[in-house]
């Protein structure tokens, strides 16, 4: 019998051409790992008016929270009773300043999560003071409740440091919409800053019924501070596509764009009067994005913000705010316009087209094209900023003294009442 040597498999199988495109997001490891969101940020959870003395459940960054209002202030606790794991949001308030679990009446203090009474174990319950649930810094701003999701046990930084500066420094009126939406928060965020889609996907939206949009642009991404901006260098309102024909977004009934200039405010033609507060910002481009997924689109008369709040790997909360920087009676005018039209056309149908795409996006793998520089610039920004944040968090836990002091200072600033809890952290002071 003559033995035939098996051919080397590597020689036998012709090498397959590598699939073009990106197979995964390992080029951005932290972004890749942030499926359920980035910890270490404040997130808007719901409207202030929705939080009452009855606890309610919300999930942010995969973390279950019970939110409750007591004596006018909002508190956030981990939504799980340590006794048998029943959600505290199923419970209610039996004593001021506390929340009681519905099952056996374990009662937790809202300011620091400490177990202060066990109704079914009598007034001398030995377990009181030995158990606590985690509390989270919570604040109200812009008519919304914001909660800080910590990386470790670090104190919450001031919310104002994270909010867009123009919202902290100027008076305005807010109209908005919050919706639970399907799809990962990163798809929502990438869709928000995506250079390519608006001109095509939204061409049928009623919001753009009388306003034309370009066909394609040459766009640059510019970074300024913690924001990246899409800067339009060239705008093409129509184009002749070789071999297939002409394509344009222009229609006879739509306003004619001024094709002689490129506007950096709104996806509209140049030459419109711009609100002085918006003009004073000198944004290099009308669309900008910052961590942890905050989109800002400036128009001549208002700025539209989208917060893509991570819920879990497959869901996010869409928080869309339209802010008009007006005072006095002008506020009423904006509110009427918001409820009468903007809410339905923009936060409804237009934004619904985005929700549809976010729900059906399935990437990676992906093959990016020229306008997707908006996506890669965002991932680079996220990767860079989060690396710095993680380093700071690691440094923080290494310093027990600083840890305790910072928690106390933060508790005072954020009004969480964590000062009491911080005092119980062993320290070498
Ligand atoms: S599970 Fe909460 S009191 Fe028993
Ligand atoms: Fe869109």
TrEMBL record:
Lineage top rank: taxon: Bacteria
Coiled coil regions in record: none
Gene3D superfamilies: 2.20.25.10, 2.20.25.680, Naphthalene 1,2-dioxygenase Alpha Subunit, Chain A, domain 1
Region (Disordered): 1-21, 405-429
Domain Rieske: 42-147
InterPro entries linked: Cholesterol_7-desaturase, Homotrim_ring_OHase_catalytic, Rieske_2Fe-2S, Rieske_2Fe-2S_sf
The keyword Chaperone appears for this protein: no
Biased composition (Polar residues): 411-429
Keywords: 2Fe-2S, Iron, Iron-sulfur, Metal-binding, Oxidoreductase
PANTHER family, per the entry: BLR4922 PROTEIN (PTHR21266:SF59), IRON-SULFUR DOMAIN CONTAINING PROTEIN (PTHR21266)
Protein known as: Rieske 2Fe-2S domain-containing protein
Organism of derivation: Nocardia jiangxiensis
